[in-house]
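Practice problem 4.
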């Protein structure tokens, strides 16, 4: 009998079939090597929508010259110089309705949302706590050398600033109430110089950090601010905000257990072929 190596074949499964196999893989170790060769739309989306941003140093916080342009400016200060020593693999787009629904089928604690809407819209109306459960579920079905999480506030802001501490996005890139006034699907968003779409308006985005009233506790190594708090930080403004609030520096407090129609999230991946 001639043995043909498994790598000679390409397998294609539906998302439901793949997710079921991934969910039982911990009890069947040989499944890992098989599943690594199987195509699945969820992981294709994740692979195709990750951008590698180089290690860098930069300033988190609003420049003094812009203080008069913003509301709630005390929360944007003081300026903190942050150094990211590792590259960041961050998703080009916020997590979409289609990706959310694919993962949520595995866990009843991750609710379905917007069942009849375009799957390319960013997922919204989900709380930070529900996003945490989504991430736990996603990480349970990914290869064991890969881990997905939210970006930290420092990572998010430096990626949004595109290497310029005083960066102001052009008006064409800002999806505010003046420009849009409604939620925009991901394929209509505009990339910044890092190739990341929709960081200025459209939706507020969750980051890993607990809420703090200013940047005085922000770690200088780019790690998240971890406090015992029921409130978390969201970044970037939304389609309900004025244009001058849809900036890299913009942040606000958000209850961890509450979802809103203009708040979503994007992913950072650790491990895999990017590292």
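Answer key:
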């Amino acid at each position: 009998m001639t043995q043909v190596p498994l790598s000679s074949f390409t397998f294609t499964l539906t998302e439901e079939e793949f997710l079921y196999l991934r969910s039982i893989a911990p009890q069947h170790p040989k499944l890992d090597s098989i599943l690594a060769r199987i195509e699945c739309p969820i992981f294709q989306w994740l692979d195709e929508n990750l951008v590698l941003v180089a290690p860098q140093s930069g300033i988190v916080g609003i420049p003094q010259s812009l203080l008069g342009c913003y509301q709630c400016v005390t929360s944007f200060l003081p300026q903190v110089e942050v150094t990211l020593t590792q590259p960041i693999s961050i998703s080009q787009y916020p997590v979409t309705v289609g990706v959310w629904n694919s993962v949520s089928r595995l866990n009843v604690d991750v609710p379905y949302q917007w069942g009849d809407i375009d799957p390319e819209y960013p997922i919204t109306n989900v709380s930070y706590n529900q996003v945490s459960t989504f991430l736990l579920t996603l990480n349970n079905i990914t290869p064991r050398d890969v881990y997905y999480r939210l970006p930290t506030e420092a990572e998010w802001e430096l990626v949004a600033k595109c290497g310029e501490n005083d960066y102001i996005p052009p008006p064409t890139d800002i999806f505010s109430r003046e420009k849009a006034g409604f939620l925009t699907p991901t394929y209509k968003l505009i990339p910044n110089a890092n190739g990341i779409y929709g960081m200025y308006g459209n939706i507020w985005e969750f980051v890993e950090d607990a809420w703090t009233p200013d940047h005085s506790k922000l770690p200088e190594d780019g790690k998240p601010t971890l406090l015992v708090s029921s409130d978390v930080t969201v970044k970037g403004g939304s389609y309900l905000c004025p244009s001058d609030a849809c900036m890299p520096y913009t942040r606000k407090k958000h209850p961890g257990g509450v979802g809103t129609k203009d708040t979503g999230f994007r992913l950072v991946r650790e491990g895999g072929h990017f590292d």
